[in-house]
Amino acid sequence: MSGDISGTSNQSNNHGSTNDQQEDINIPSNVSTPLVQSENASEIQQFKPQQQLVTPPATSQPNNTTTSTESTSLLRRIPSTTSTNYTEDNYDSMSISTKIVNLAKRPSFIWISCLGIIAIIIFNLTFLPRTSLARDYRRWHDIHLTKSDVERDFLQLTSVYDSDNDNDNDNNKNNNKRGKKKKKKKEVNIKDSINSFLLNLTDLQNEYNLVASDNLKLTNYIQSNFKKMGLKTETTTYSIHDSKPISSSLKLLNKDETVYQPKLFENNFKTPSYFLNGHNGSVINEYVYVNEGLPKDYNLLKKKNIEIKDKIFIISNDLDNKNNITIGEKLKLAELNGASGILTYYQLNSNLNQDTNLNSVISRDFNNFNISIPAIPVSEKIIKPILETLRNDEEFENWSFHPRTNSNFKLEITTIFKNDSSKLTNIIGTIKGIMNDGDIIVGTNRDSYTNNNPLSGHVIMLEIIRSFNLLVKLGWKPLRNIKFVSWDGSNMDSLGLKMYSNISSNFKKPILSYINIDQDAIIGSHFQITANSIFNHVLKKTTKFIPFKNDSFTLFQYWNKQDNLTIENNLGLPLLFSTDSLVFQHHLNTPIINVKFSNDQKRDNSIYLPNSNYYNYNWLLKQPGIDDELDLHATLIRYLGLLVISLSEHEVVDYKTEPYFKQAEQYYKDFLTCEGDNLSSWSNNTIPNYLIYKSSIFQDLDTNEPVKFDQIVQQLSNFLNETTYQSKIFDDWNINVENGLIKDYPWYLYYKKLQHFAQFKVSNYKLLHFEKDLKLNDKDYIYLNLNEDGSSTTGNELFYDSIIFNTPDLKNNEEFFKDRFLKSTFGNLYKAIDDENFEMSVKWIVLIYEKIKNLEYKMT
């Protein structure tokens, strides 16, 4: 028995060194191998593969046929290799990964696996959901909030009134029944935050805040808030030379004896009475009242043979400013008409319900024409005793006072300034967007003439930043960069912005829009917008979503009832009173938006006097009807914030060009009407070839005859009409491009998405360079200075170089102010006509045509 078992074992070992086929051939069919005997069961067990067990026979008597078959089957199941001698111990010690690899080497397994993977891919592609390019783009950048989500969240974060308050009792009952907790209140109420900012900015004011170095605490406060609210913050600092106001004095003399010497301060304040950029000076002379100091007033004085040269002029200012003239321009006109010194004051309407302190208000301003004579702003209370020395005369019954005095009174005025070096600092904070095609800039100025200004423009901007920071924490990523800027030196003719713009790297990307918030953004209840007409549609649409006055109606309804949704689109003269916007629109050729609540004397109980300490925290909140509930501040925060989000989240730049060209066409029609007589006198004049033969207007006229002046005038009119029609097609095309971005496609139509992406990039490039194409360039200046012999004289380049919007140079004549608003569009063309310069008039018509032709070509 033992010998049989031993033989079996040796036989198995020999087979272990051969392949399976050899094993099958060498095993005789008649070999009897007693595989199962009770005493040797443990030895047999070690030969069995682990993957499959062999059940021993039920009897101890061996059956030769059965045993032979089972032995053969057992040997077949033992794996073997050709590289090494296989043993049962070797197989048992193999790792699972090795066994899997051996299994994977079988061709059948590889084919089955490949077919399975292909089947899975086909299945997934078959049921892959349709997506749009806009959705893919947002997913790629891990943006989970849609435009609607962001707008809704912003309005909720800036909500003034809790909509749940009206139903608190019902909600509390329902919550108690359901076991729910009451909804948590917002951590910071928007009105509390507004009030806190107003108080802080008021407390940080200095005697005056003309540049950053005058009040470093204020500069640091704005900068620290930018950083705290998550903005990537940077500052730009410039050294400047300026004159600091020290003191001013005024004396009324009678035969060299001082009979009246008021203190030139407002009640409870020590801010000097001054005109910024003033000079040291002192003068003693007779004085004359010149009414509002307009050319028509000086003409009347000359007509009445009243001598005004070398006298001190007393000029009254109108609260309504119906003549659209700045205080600085009045100072310049006075100097041109022979003044040796100047006093200005605001004449108040005694019929108005006024604060008793109003007649003590001093309104400061900027000496932007750098006059050299002493000039002092005073209050109505200060000037009243001097005006009472003037006699009453029926010849000037439409004036408040007669120009001359009854006796030999004289005035002595003295201004003292200190020349100094100062630091000017702009603060820029950025929320990074995911697209790099253009930036949205929101700005307001930090400098002020007084020590009591609450800087409501900064309060609005800071509150928008705070809300945007909360949106970012919720997962918002704006499509475009949003920049917030605190400008310095804006009251110095936008000195901070001009110095910043002189460095070309500061504006590397196109600017989609500049949204300006006036320093005194809340001065009344009249909702006022001055903006580029390409934004008219979005400005009106956004107001529909802004609740107003206890949520009882919308800002759209309020605005519609107020003045039928009026937007001032003439960006010439009106921007003269908003200098930062003027620089962006006229110099940087950026479409602007300027929004505020202005003062309306017919509706508002309180009067606003600019650049005075009268405008302060108490005036804003404690004067009835201004903003005692902070509703106007909250409204502008929500409106401007939602406007920025709308412009940022629109993939295709949200411009409408048709209103822009309609306005331009109307401006040109007004030009033809205004200058009709001058144009008709030149209608048959032949235009020299050197002025026109290379131009587009000559090619479009398509004539071999000499070109007459009236032909190019009419051709420009026709072409503006054609461009207006083409702009409507262009706007419709951009709408289709926007719709293509949100259209869903299956995966196999990916090339459609690529097509929409290309259209999207091209449309945005054209739109973002829209205003830039209307800017004068080096080639244009060469043409403007072109001579008949082909040479070009050297001429000064214009700082404000838009071909459509201009601010005409100041002129000392009545006609200038009569047509001033009209001539702030196509101003250079008006100037050439008024100067009776035929060749320059032709050049400007040719140049305007060329610019609009290039723009029209891009739109087609």
From TrEMBL:
The keyword Nucleotide-binding does not apply. InterPro entries: PA_dom_sf, Peptidase_M28B. The chain crosses the membrane at residues 109-128. GO terms for molecular function: carboxypeptidase activity. Residues 175-186 have a biased composition (Basic residues). Gene3D superfamilies: 3.50.30.30, Zn peptidases. Residues 1-75, 161-187 are annotated as: Disordered. Residues 1-20, 27-54 have a biased composition (Polar residues). The keyword NAD does not apply. Keywords: Membrane, Transmembrane, Transmembrane helix. Residues 55-73 have a biased composition (Low complexity). It comes from the Eukaryota. This is Peptide hydrolase. It comes from Candida verbasci.
